[in-house]
Amino acid sequence: MTEPASKADDPKRAERGEDFDPPGPDWLYRLRQRIAGDSKLRQAIWRVVITALGGGVLLAGIAMLVFPGPGWAAIFLGLAILASEYVWAHRLLIFTKEKAQGAASAAISRENRKRTIAIGVIVVLLIASLVSWYVYYNGWTLDRFLAWFGIG
Fold this sequence. Notes:
Layout: H1 11-16, H2 26-36, H3 40-66, H4 71-83, H5 87-108, H6 113-138, H7 143-148
Helix pairs in contact: 3-4, 4-5
């Protein structure tokens, strides 16, 4: 059985009268067609797997905002996984991407450059002073730091 070259070329979609173009790249659509096909059960299983995987990564990203880890990267990855199946996640991902690009542009714009550099210097000095305070009182050991988490 040959597969369509893209989502737009799929004759089964044309027969069903579908004009909805699912989000995501063509290779993912072809993979889904190969795995799920026309079986309603396999399509439901595919959707559950994608939802569980994307939701898990998204929840892990939210947890990593509080705990150590690349929280925002995991949130964007979770949204991208969910966006391969759900239009609402695709719209949210586009909205978030536009806002992040706008914030980055505003941060590096010429009129905000001095303020951004000043905030960066303040943050670096604050972190350096906290590390210096910790080393002064506790030495170069992580025993007390790990004790905060009940590890040491």
